[in-house]
Amino acid sequence: MDNFEQLLSESMANFQHRPSEIIEAEVIFVDRHKIIVDVGLHAEGTISRNEFIEPPVVGDKIKVVVEALDDGDGQLKITHREVMVREQSEHIPEMVANNEIVDAKVVSLANAGLNVQVGYLSGFIPRKLVDVVPVSDPEQFVNQMVRVKVLSHDSTHDNLVVSRKAAILDERGGIVPALDRELSVGDTVEGKVINLKRYGAFIDIGGVSPLLHVSDLNWDINQAKPEDFAIGDRLNVIVKHKDSDTNRYFLSVKHLDMTPWEDAKKQLEVGSVHQAKVIKVEGNGDIRVSVGGVSGLVKSQDVSWTRMTTSSINAEFRRGAEIEVKVIGFDDTFGFEDVLVSRKDCINNPWTEISQKFKEGDIIEASVKSVGDKMIFISVFEDVDAIVPIREISWSNSKGAILGIHVGDKVKAKLTSIDVEDRRVVASMKQTEENPLYSIKRGTKVTGEVTSIAKNGDVQIKCFQGHREQMGVILSRNAVPSRAYKSDEVYEIGQKIDGTVISVLANGLISLNVSNKWEKSASQNNALKEAMKAAKAEA
């Protein structure tokens, strides 16, 4: 140990630390949080991963500054960022003088513009310098890389003032003249691509920058590609729609030539069957497709003969899938043209057979398709499912019974309603067996257990008759021998009860009489009350 400490002491003695001196270090370790470097003579230091725009790899040589020989944990305190900031700062005057355009990353919104990172330096784009036209939604730029021109540098705070507008003007050759009139639907105007997204392009048409959606680039959505455009491209667009409330324009390129749509209507006759490619499933369950080179729409009610949720439609009809559809009409609304098609008309309709195969009252064995809070669905025939409402699961405890049912379980059910026109089947599981209440006659002996005592004196009982459970009640007037007693003085939770059925109440509870069992409990409680009175009198 003494030899090691001596060697370490000698190494540190030979290591000359001069404040602010830039030295070269070798990267010897890298992980998600830190970079460890060797600055020579077996002296190591740790640098936070956050100091690097791109992390180095083991073996790289990087420039660092040793700030202190001991960071408090016995290691060198070193920095890489200070070196890079210093080197970048030295080039700022040259960048300003030469009107250089550089890359910047927008990191956050500010009250008056955007905060950016230019290499290792912080910067700011004033809102009026974000674009060549007013920007209504500056948040669209956050986390985006943009090209900016360096205007000035605050060396005290290492802060740059930069302009995206100036960079655009330099790289794209000027701005689009401001609109001199309000546009109407059908008007054609020249615009310039100022931003590209996967869902379309933002077009500067002079003071406003509406979205040209990808679906409006080409009549054949499969051929619509925003990447075919480049920022700065100039093109003619047509106003396909205008929101009168927000004065917002919706643009289109494909509507400059209506020929593909008119040709499609001639080729896609109503009643004809075609192959279509799924483009997307809308939020309401409608399926957007490409058919005959134009946009088609399968409305949710035309997807299947059976009801399907949006999530199940999403799961079954993936983007790019080929489906067979039948043309049922056209939507000629300018700007929103669609071939209306049906998928269900191309598949077997199970409802034409179900009324022949089944009738109300039939008892079937079926698989559970799904379990909800208030109902379950069981498979009846092909894609036809039946609803079993929770109240139809059990005669006695449906809420408890539904918890024991799982997808895939085999259950027996009685078909109680078959509505072919409304495409709805309702079934009952409990009606496959006799209502146990019907077998309970007045005077029947039952055993039970007290489960609760109501404030009004009614005593709730869980009754057992053979293997069946049924909830019962001892009404307050039958629960105690006289008004001198309260139910909670005679009964306790968990107490075993032998009773006789008086009647079956409208709510399905069995009304019980246990009058022949009062005496023992009543006399015991009466003796206890007398003892307590005597004790109080003596006190």
From TrEMBL:
Pfam families cross-referenced by the UniProt entry: S1
Gene Ontology terms for molecular function: mRNA binding; structural constituent of ribosome
One GO cellular component term: ribonucleoprotein complex
SUPFAM superfamilies to which the protein is assigned, alphabetical: Nucleic acid-binding proteins
Alphabetical list of CDD domains matching this protein: S1_RPS1_repeat_ec2_hs2 (cd04465)
Superkingdom of the organism of origin: Bacteria
Gene Ontology biological process: translation
Sequence ranges assigned to domain S1 motif in this UniProt record: 20-81, 99-165, 186-254, 271-344, 361-430
Keywords: Ribonucleoprotein, Ribosomal protein
Stored SMART domains: S1
Family, per entry: Belongs to the bacterial ribosomal protein bS1 family.
Protein name according to UniProt: S1 motif domain-containing protein
Organism in which the protein naturally occurs: Photobacterium galatheae
Phylogenetic placement of the source organism: Bacteria, Pseudomonadati, Pseudomonadota, Gammaproteobacteria, Vibrionales
